[in-house]
Specification:
Elements (H helix, E strand, L loop, with lengths): L4 E9 L6 H20 L4 E8 L3 H9 L4 H18 L6 E4 L3 H16 L3 E11 L4 E3 L1 H6 L12 E10 L5 H10 L4 E2 L1 H11 L6 E2 L1 E3 L11 E2 L2 E6 L1 H6 L1 H4 L13 E5 L3 H18 L12 E5 L2 E3 L2 E2 L10 H11 L1 H11 L7 E3 L1 H30 L14 H6 L2 H10 L3 H22 L1 H5 L6 H25 L4 H10 L16 H4 L37
Parallel strand pairs: 1-2, 1-12, 2-3, 7-13, 12-13, 14-16
Antiparallel strand pairs: 4-5, 4-6, 6-8, 9-11, 10-11, 14-15
The chain binds ligand ME8.
The site of ligand ME8 has 19 residues, from strand 1, helix 1, helix 8 and strand 12.
Length: about 550
């Protein structure tokens, strides 16, 4: 089987500095990309990038005495650095000011003008200047004629524009959403979109007039009409297609899109309709353009229960994440974001107390302590060599581990990251429970006189170590650094989920007692060596790192 996987994040506005929200979506996408590589059944393409043709980019650039492109260059670099720091293994980084993007977008728009899906007309509506988007009459009214995102007043505007005839695709889109339960996730978001779709669809403006205002001059020109530029949102959505629209990459289509609830409508409605229109406009060229596999819209990170905003100045900035990583490790930060984040339909609070609690429970006392306990005993009682699993192995640990890779992959297919990772932590809990139940420390005291006790001890420790090996594999997309470190410390083949990583498919790698299992006699740890802890315990009383 050669299944292609294509995973995307939103492309972020370059007028902002990277913060927890951007790092979060990119880390979620990264975990899925790593998981897909671990699956080992086909190539993976993971894309992130920056959205640069926004009015606010020009305004901020000029206010800071930069040209728009200089400003975009400077800030795009900050996003690259932030994501590299987070351990993101993106295969490419698209910037909408790159020629490879702008030239293709002009091609897509030209095809849509030719097919009549995009046409010139008059538009009058409620415009949200803070979000650079028009709202429908209903949404504007429900929001009290202020921006639902920023609370700034909406403006009634009339302009000559190019429009996309969205309503033409309403029925097909409804049918698709209804027939594909996983197309919009999570389910509550799908219901929101379905509800709004039933209000009917308006034409979508896809251009902005160019005037003397420099803000209007930064953008991709409408093909054949230099008095209009392509509206930043339409330009931005096409990044997902322009980046892979090359002979060697087209097979990656269709994508799975990760984003937050703020931009769901564009991704779940406007974008699929544009794709249907493009496909029909030129079925020969765009035969590969199917609808996305899924659009996953998570909720928001908030801080101390309050929305993060510029005016409150309460963003969890990249510097804060760096300080946490310095103190607790980058993997601890990834773990906190991935397991405590707003993947579902409720917002998540970033709290120091919660960070320490989860860090200690899952990492320091969980995987870390369990691995060093077991390695210690193997060091002490078996001269560091993996003991033979004498006798039949039937126990709770092994039954939990049976078929675990298949369950994990099924959850990954449903984009249920929480539940997939919980299989890894669950396996560690089973090992801890098994150690408590079987008391290998006590058993060890009798092995001099009793060879049967030695066999039993060897069997227990084999089961524990093999289960920890499997749990580490399953957790590696979230904590790639520590997982690789543990494998190295235990003398196992490299555990790598980064770009181009090659290893056995997950179903083989994570099979208890299978071909990749720990081999009796393998030197797991030096004789009487005390293993270094993977995660040092955190003191809950300590102040947050600054
Ligand atoms: O909307 N919690 O860019 P953007 C979680 N350029 N995630 C958050 C967040 C928070 N508090 N704040 C932001 C744009 N995000 C457009 C997108 S895509 C074709 C164009 C994340 O810089 C989340 O992924 O405003 C959200 O959707 C995205 O940043 C918005 O980034």
């Amino acid at each position: 089987m050669n299944q292609h996987t294509y995973i995307t994040t939103p492309i972020y506005y370059v007028n902002d500095r990277p913060h927890i929200g951007h790092c979060y979506t990119t880390t979620v996408a990264d975990a899925f990309a790593r998981l897909a590589r671990l699956r080992g059944t086909g190539p993976v393409f993971f894309l992130t990038g920056t959205d640069e043709h926004a009015d606010k980019v020009v305004t901020n650039a000029l206010a800071n005495k930069f040209t728009p492109i200089q400003w975009a260059d400077k800030n795009a670099e900050q996003f690259k650095l932030a994501f590299a720091f987070m351990g993101a293994t993106n295969d490419d980084f698209i910037r909408t000011t790159q020629e490879r993007h702008t030239s293709r977008v002009r091609g897509y728009i030209a095809a849509l003008i030719k097919s009549g899906d995009i046409y010139l007309g008059d538009y009058s509506g409620w415009y949200d200047p803070s979000q650079e988007e028009y709202l429908t009459e209903t949404v504007a009214k429900d929001a009290g004629f202020v921006s639902p995102v920023t609370g700034q007043p909406l403006i009634k505007r009339t302009e000559k524009n190019y429009f996309f005839n969205l309503a033409k695709y309403e029925q097909r889109l409804l049918q698709h959403i209804e027939a594909h339960k996983g197309f919009i996730q999570p389910e509550s978001r799908r219901n929101e979109v379905l509800g709004r779709l039933r209000d009917g669809l308006q034409p979508v403006p896809v251009s902005r007039a160019i005037t003397d205002d420099p803000a209007t001059q930064f953008g991709i020109r409408i093909p054949g009409d230099d008095s209009h530029r392509i509206y930043v949102w339409i330009d931005a959505l096409f990044n997902y297609l322009s980046t892979i629209d090359t002979d060697d990459r087209r097979a990656f289509w269709p994508p799975v899109h990760f984003l937050a609830k703020d931009i769901l409508w564009f991704h779940a409605v406007v974008w699929p309709a544009l794709l249907m229109a493009l496909h029909d406009a030129d079925p020969k060229t765009y035969s590969f353009v199917k609808l996305p596999r899924a659009v996953y819209a998570h909720s928001y990170w908030v801080r101390e229960g309050r929305k993060m905003s510029k005016s409150l100045g309460n963003f969890v900035e990249i510097e804060t994440l760096r300080a946490y990583a310095d103190k607790y490790s980058l993997d601890a930060v990834r773990w906190y974001l991935l397991t405590q984040g707003p993947l579902g339909s409720t917002d998540a609070d970033f709290s120091h107390a919660k960070f320490v609690e989860i860090y200690n429970a899952n990492l320091a006392n969980g995987l870390g302590n369990c691995a060093s306990r077991v390695a210690n005993m193997i060091g002490k009682y078996f001269a560091g060599q993996v003991p033979a699993p004498a006798g039949p192995i039937t126990n709770e640990v092994e039954s939990f581990a049976a078929g675990i890779a298949e369950r994990y992959l099924a959850l990954a297919d449903e984009l249920n990251l929480d539940a997939a990772l919980a299989l890894g932590t669950g396996l560690i809990s089973k090992v801890d429970q098994f150690i408590n139940d079987t008391q290998p420390f006590k058993l060890a005291k009798t092995i001099e006189q009793n060879p049967a006790a030695r066999d039993r001890l060897g069997q227990i420790l084999y089961i524990c170590a093999e289960a920890i090996r499997i749990a580490t594999v399953l957790l590696s997309p979230a904590i790639p650094g520590k997982a690789a470190h543990l494998f190295k410390a235990w003398g196992l083949p490299a555990l790598d989920t980064s770009i181009g990583a090659a290893h056995a498919p997950l179903t083989e790698l994570a099979r208890f007692g299978g071909d990749h299992a720990l081999k009796p006699g393998h030197r797991l740890i030096g004789d009487n060596v005390k293993p270094e802890p993977l995660f040092l315990r955190a003191d809950p009383a300590e102040a947050p790192p600054a």
